[in-house]
From TrEMBL:
Origin: domain of life: Bacteria
Keyword Metal-binding: no
A GO BP entry: transmembrane transport
InterPro entries: DctP_fam (IPR018389), TRAP_DctP_sf (IPR038404)
Signal peptide boundaries: 1-21
UniProt-recorded name of the protein: TRAP-type C4-dicarboxylate transport system substrate-binding protein
Keyword Signal: yes
């Protein structure tokens, strides 16, 4: 049984100069150490520790070792941990605004993904604030593409296929292309393919490398459909308990981590596609007719989402499209 982690474990260390109060924060994330999101989080934690002279230490628990990804938001909200990382769109059932970045073809490409983030951020922060949470920073995944065991040339090729869903939007995408959605977390993807639970998915090249997609999939189609984002969440009460100087350090380094993470994402996007190809996968653009069909499916998803998200959703999309 997983032990309950205190909001902010405080240790007292004796030094030659006297007693120094040290705050230790446990930070769960669902992704492995080789993933650039995790690498960036470890950089953030190291920089905070250095800048505070060791008075604030963030201990990163990667690869869902402390909490599984669907549990992390609640753990932060309830104070079981003071800080954690989530895939924002995985919580779209709680707040449709969090799904905006996972809507296929609404904001394809790096520049559009950043522009959408700027439009989405005020709505997202306002809704999290009501729950005692702040998003410290948010970093996108590379453009999403389709992985499959068999060639995909038309939408008809998806009919009856078991398609991985990691949020409500990708589940609905699977339905609209004629596939059967199956919810599978990132760490469970290889086993799900091997067991026949899924035979296709839409995700980034980074996830493909993390899961060694070449061991269970033969094709990666570069659709650049969307750039879902992770968010590093902090419990507001835990944050307020820090001395003001430490609060400012955390905010300053979070801003740097966000910029650094987006730069890493661009490089990872190219590197991971090369890695997939080097390991024997076919990496290609989808046929033009299929890409056009994807665009139509994407437009239908955006329309459905605007109705679900209400006035805020419509205002967000309008602001992005200005």
């Amino acid at each position: 049984m997983r032990s309950i982690v205190t909001m902010a474990a405080v240790a007292v260390a004796m030094s030659a100069g006297g007693a120094v109060a040290q705050t230790k924060w446990n930070m769960p994330t669902a992704y492995p150490d080789g993933n650039y999101h995790t690498q960036n989080i470890r950089w953030f934690a190291d920089e905070v520790k250095k800048a505070t002279g060791g008075k604030l230490e963030i201990i990163v628990h990667s690869n869902a070792a402390l909490f599984k990804m669907p549990e992390i938001k609640r753990a932060v909200q309830t104070g079981q941990v003071p800080i954690g990382e989530i895939l924002l769109s995985a919580y779209g059932n709680e707040d449709p605004i969090l799904e905006a970045d996972s809507l296929p073809f609404l904001a394809a490409g790096y520049d559009n993904a950043w522009k959408l983030y700027q439009a989405q951020r005020p709505y997202m922060q306002a809704n999290f604030k009501k729950q005692g949470i702040t998003v410290l920073y948010s970093v996108a995944w590379p453009g999403q593409g389709v992985y499959s065991k068999a060639p995909i040339n038309t939408l008809a090729d998806f009919k009856g296929m078991k398609f991985r869903a990691y949020n409500a939007v990708t589940a609905r995408l699977a339905e609209l292309i004629g596939a059967q959605p199956a919810t599978v977390q990132s760490a469970e993807v290889p086993q799900a393919f091997s067991a026949g639970v899924i035979s296709a998915m839409i995700t980034s090249g980074a996830t493909g490398v993390d899961t060694k997609a070449w061991e269970f999939s033969k094709f990666f189609y570069e659709t650049e459909a969307m750039h879902p984002r992770n968010g590093v969440l902090i419990n507001d009460r835990a944050f307020r308990r820090l001395p003001e100087a430490q609060q400012q350090i955390v905010l300053n380094i979070a801003e740097l981590a966000e910029k650094r993470g987006w730069e890493m994402m661009q490089k990872v996007s190219d590197d991971t596609k090369m890695t997939l190809a080097k390991n024997g996968m076919t990496v290609a653009k989808p046929p033009a007719a299929l890409q056009a069909d994807y665009q139509k499916v994407g437009a239908a998803l955006v329309s459905e989402w605007e109705k679900k998200a209400g006035a805020d959703g419509a205002a967000l999309v309008a602001k992005y499209r200005q």
